[in-house]
TrEMBL record:
It comes from Natrarchaeobaculum aegyptiacum. It comes from the Archaea. PANTHER family: STRESS RESPONSE PROTEIN NHAX (PTHR46268), UNIVERSAL STRESS PROTEIN UP12 (PTHR46268:SF6). InterPro entries: Rossmann-like_a/b/a_fold, Universal_stress_UspA, UspA. Belongs to the universal stress protein A family. This is Universal stress protein. Residues 6-147 form the UspA domain. SUPFAM superfamilies: Adenine nucleotide alpha hydrolases-like. The lineage of its organism: Archaea, Methanobacteriati, Methanobacteriota, Stenosarchaea group, Halobacteria. Pfam families: Usp.
């Protein structure tokens, strides 16, 4: 399968695995010369908190793409992609993490989605929802899951 488009979706818990996420994308996108969409998905509450923290001009109309571009995890991954000359664009989106990632994958016609998550116990999986699980089950293309080693 030819990869033309890869979506890397990051969220608030991905700072600790940003190097692993970037490496996973580079591994699949570089040989295929694929375009990468580097996306940060915020819940409405996260979005409002980030806007306050980043001190945007109160009079400016703030777009999710602009907020995502200023997010530390995005900037760190962006630096890695720049080192390898990888072609990418940055997207921001507000909504439920899982559903919004799936929607973004459909919008950019992704051939692969890369998401991160943490290892979970069987009980943790049953009790709490999982963004990665939602994406794995609903994405319109194959999904690469990059796990951190912290247990739940």
């Amino acid at each position: 399968m030819q990869l033309d488009s890869v979506l890397l979706a990051v969220g608030p818990g991905d700072a600790d695995r940003r190097d692993d996420l970037a490496a996973a994308v580079l591994e699949v996108a570089t040989p295929a010369d694929a375009t990468v969409t580097l996306a940060h998905v915020f819940t409405q509450e996260e979005y409002e908190e980030v806007i306050d923290r980043l001190e945007f001009d109160d009079d400016a109309e703030i777009e999710p793409d602009s907020v995502a571009e200023r997010h530390a995890t995005i900037r760190d991954i962006q630096s890695e992609f720049d080192e390898y000359g990888l072609e990418y664009d940055i997207r921001g989106a507000v909504g439920d993490h899982g559903d919004t990632i799936v929607s973004l994958a459909e919008e950019v016609d992704a051939d692969r989605v890369v998401v991160g998550g943490r290892r979970r116990s069987p009980t943790g999986k049953a009790v709490f929802g999982s963004t990665a699980q939602e994406v794995l089950l609903s994405a319109p293309c194959p999904v690469t899951f990059v796990r951190s080693d912290d247990s739940f």
